[in-house]
Amino acid sequence: MGQIKDILTTLLPLVVLFLIFYFLIVRPQRQQQKKHKEMIEGLTKGDKIVTQGGLIVEVLKAEANFFSVKLNDDTTAKLSKNYIAFKLDELDQLGLAEPIVIQQGREEISAKLSGTKTLKQRQITTNETF
User: Fold this and answer.
1) Is the distance from CB of 68 to CB of 76 less than 8 angstroms?
2) Which of 78, 100, 91 is nearest to 50 (CA)?
3) Which of 48, 77, 97, 105 is the most exposed place for a label (fewest CB within 10 A)?
4) Fold topology of 43-94
5) Taking all residues of the chain, what is their mean pLDDT, rounded to a whole number?
6) Which residues contact 109 (CB under 8 A, 6 or more apart)?
7) pLDDT of 119
8) Backbone phi, psi, residue 98, to 5°
9) What is the pairing mode between strands 100-104 and 84-87?
């Protein structure tokens, strides 16, 4: 009976650490991967996406592992599904597409994303460009 108690007291902290690790790291990452996969599967012609490299492109055609995308009026390319960061509409819904710049006084500037609080305020000197 003493050995079972010793084993339980030894393993209990490890089990607790594993559970903490799972709920703080593994589970949220899996949920994010699932959401990203669903977003990629839901892309259709005409959707605007942002690539991992920061390019904003328009989806022309979905293929097995690639998307045919339009970079501009004259240029099309194939993009691997692994390099899609997010759909541009998602940024617009979050209010991250265009920040609202607010100027307060002559030496203080702040930028605000719609639906959030002011992100940063700082003093600037009059000879600093912005």
Assistant:
1) yes
2) 91
3) 105
4) SH3 type barrels. (2.30.30)
5) 80
6) 101, 102, 103, 121, 122, 124, 130
7) 45
8) -135, 115
9) unpaired
Burial (CB count <10 Å: 0-12, 13-18, 19+), residue 57: buried
Distance CA 109, CA 13 (A): 50
Core vs surface per residue 77-102: b (16+ CB within 10 A) or e: eebeeeebeebbeeeeeeeeeeeeee
The C-alpha angle with vertex 116 and arms to 129 and 123, in degrees rounded to 5, equals: 30
Angle of CA points 97, 80, 60, to nearest 5°: 65
Q: In the chain, where are the structural domains located?
A: 1-41, 43-94, 98-130
Full-prediction pTM beyond 0.85? no
